What we know:
With 77 residues, the protein is α/β, with parallel strands linked by helices. It contains three helices and three strands. It has a three-stranded parallel beta sheet. Helix 2 (32-41) links the parallel strand 1 (20-24) and strand 2 (43-46).
Amino acid sequence: MADAFIYIYIHNHFNLEAPFIFGNKEDTPDIKLFEKWLKSAGYIYSRRSYNQSVQSRYINSAMLKEIIENNKLTMVF
């Protein structure tokens, strides 16, 4: 999580376009103020689910692929 904070800070400091940031919900600390900051920064949560339907997996994969292809900056961790 510190990586995302540092990455966004550097972009803001040098007035660069903010990237899309994808991260795992289970790996994110459960701190309300931190969650509020991530939400305002455009952090996109994902969840691990092995019970997810094939259609849902396909849609999620297609959306991620489109975001990566159409945006200069994307960070996934």
